[in-house]
Amino acid sequence: MSDAKKLFVKTYGCQMNVYDSERMAEVLAGAGYVETDTADDADMILLNTCHIREKAAEKVYSELGRFKGLKAARPDLKIAVAGCVAQAEGEEIVRRQPMVDLVVGPQSYHRLAELEARTGGGARAVDTEFPEEDKFDRLSARPKARRAPAAFLTVQEGCDKFCAFCVVPYTRGAEASRPVAAILAEARDLVERGVREITLLGQNVNAYHGAAETGDLGLAGLIRRLADIDGLDRIRYTTSHPNDMDDDLIAAHGNCEKLMPYLHLPVQSGSDRILGAMNRKHDARSYLRLVERIRAARPDLLLSGDFIVGFPGETEADFEATMDLVRAVGYGQAYSFKYSPRPGTPAADRAHVDEAVKADRLARLQALLKEQQQAAQAAMVGKTVSVLFERQGRMPGQLVGKSEHLQAVHVTGDDVRIGDIRKVRIVRSDPNSLAGELVPEPQASPAA
Ligand code: SAH
Ligand code: SF4
Ligand code: F3S
Questions:
Q1: Fewer Cβ in 10 A, N or C end of the chain?
Q2: Which residues in the chain come in under a pLDDT of 70?
Q3: Distance from the CA of 253 to the center of ligand 2, in angstroms?
Q4: Distance (Å, rounded) from C-alpha 445 to C-alpha 448?
Q5: What phi, psi does 407 have (nearest 5°)?
Q6: Is the distance from the beta carbon of residue 86 to the nearest atom of ligand 3 less than 6 Å?
Q7: Bridge partners (DSSP) listed for residue 424
Q8: Domains recognised in the chain with CATH numbers
Q9: Mapped to the 3 state alphabet, what secondary structure does 247-282 carry?
């Protein structure tokens, strides 16, 4: 038996939280923690929280309540709350839930080991500052463990857009980009550890403007620099704001081979009146024109989006405009939500749409989006696609991976391994994935 302490991490919310959780586990590895997949035998429980939905804080408090028994049985157990609820609630968390030992915001988690050392025996630590130093600088000493073939890499954080419904500018702070050299170094390190696909993350990733020796680079410039890395085969990025899709980035979709033909480009609504009330600073026509231009650069691009129904003041006609926009675009994949008021945001105090009306609109929108997603999948049947295999499937001998268009593909076969990129002929479209057959390779697997 080793005397390593055990860390249980539970992650909510967006991909950036997934990335942050990995970084926090690495910081705590430096303090002697190894990860475990159950809370029951953990020495530290870390909840990495999200604040985007209604009652997010309440849900965290009730989740914490479930650990009461564990904490009573083992008073040494440390309980930590990180992420966007930690940022929003701060000190309030330890006031309302005294069994919490540590609260750390998304901008201070590089200090986690020091904070952890200050806790225990009833001592608490709370850090929700936006410190001057660059947290990423302090995160670079990673253990050289082998990684899954697809990884996230945060390149930009925060948002200055202040959409009227959104908490992100408050929880993640002002928009900031990491320097190019730091990102390239992290990408090379990931590739050395077996990563073949990197998704660049940012709340507004296409607002990226990082310092390089030759002056600032935009996202397209960064993608081209990353594309020079041997062994890195696929690049993606998320999430984008329509107003930050510049000409260079649109062109990259046409001429950068490693940039995958998939784009998550939230529009939120198809009604100009509602877009104005949301402070989105674009209208439906400019969005449609933008989609046309990106598709001209990359005709097979698969588009994904986010939608909010029942934003304050949304009429049936406004909602129909959203349905029209969806029909005009044709999404391969999408997320849709009922508007939920977030305290502190401008829209929270406006007159709300009736809950039953919201539910009805959401059901209609989701039926249309589901139809489009199924059509996009069905269109792949009979085609040969390139798949990066990421994990074991549920059936014996089954492997699951992602196509270039980010569709899940599963195959059965013994000459394919996790980390391989292989040609697959699609034979069937299932509800949320595609079934395929491996195209035999004349020679050994390219990954060998
Ligand atoms: N930074 C990203 C994601 C923001 S949060 C972006 O700008 O696109 C992810 C999605 O959650 C948003 O695109 C929006 O559709 C949804 N969302 C955010 N706040 C919401 C709220 N108050 N009610 C309902 N949906 C919301
Ligand atoms: Fe939120 Fe709007 Fe910023 Fe996206 S662009 S993070 S929706 S404020
Ligand atoms: Fe949630 Fe914070 Fe991400 S609010 S969606 S975890 S940026």
A1: N
A2: 1-2, 138-144, 443-448
A3: 23
A4: 6
A5: -90, 140
A6: no
A7: 385, 438
A8: 5-127 (3.40.50.12160), 141-260 (3.30.750.210), 384-438 (2.40.50.140)
A9: HHHHHHHHHCCCECCEEECCCECCCHHHHHHCCCCC
Nearest partner of 314 among 347, 265, 283, judged by Cα: 347
Confirm or reject: Cβ of 260 under 6 Å from ligand 3.
no
Task: Quote the DSSP letter at residue 310.
Answer: S
What are the tokens at 238?
Answer: 């998320």
The burial class, CB within 10 Å (0-12 / 13-18 / 19+), for 158 is buried
Q: How would you classify the pairing of strands 408-412 and 398-403?
A: antiparallel
Q: What is residue 120's predicted lDDT score, i.e. its pLDDT? A: 86
- CA atoms 138, 139, 145, 150: torsion sign: negative
Ligand 3 centroid–CA 12 distance in Å is: 8
Check: CB of residue 197 under 8 Å from CB of residue 387: no
**Among 371, 342, 340, residue whose Cα is nearest residue 355:** 340
230-278 pLDDT tens trace: 999 999 999 999 999 999 999 999 999 999 999 999 999 999 999 999 9
Rounded Cα gap, residues 425 and 427, in angstroms: 6
Q: How far apart are CA 113 and CA 346, in angstroms?
A: 37
Report the distance separating Cα 227 and Cα 219, nearest Å. Answer: 12
